[in-house]
Amino acid sequence: MPGQPKTLEYLWFHDSASQKDISRECIIDKSTVTSLLKCMEKLDLIRKETRPED
What we know:
Layout (H helix, E strand, L loop, with lengths): L3 H10 L5 H8 L3 H13 L12
Helix pairs in contact: 2-3
């Protein structure tokens, strides 16, 4: 999926990044980030967590 390598690299260095952070820093549309993260989570590449302050 386009954007996946860039997102994985960003998350490697920014472990607790928000979807907003990923969108801004990787220059990917917010809706695309949402779809991308869902796909990556299904593949067990990432684990999404809810922040108490969100």
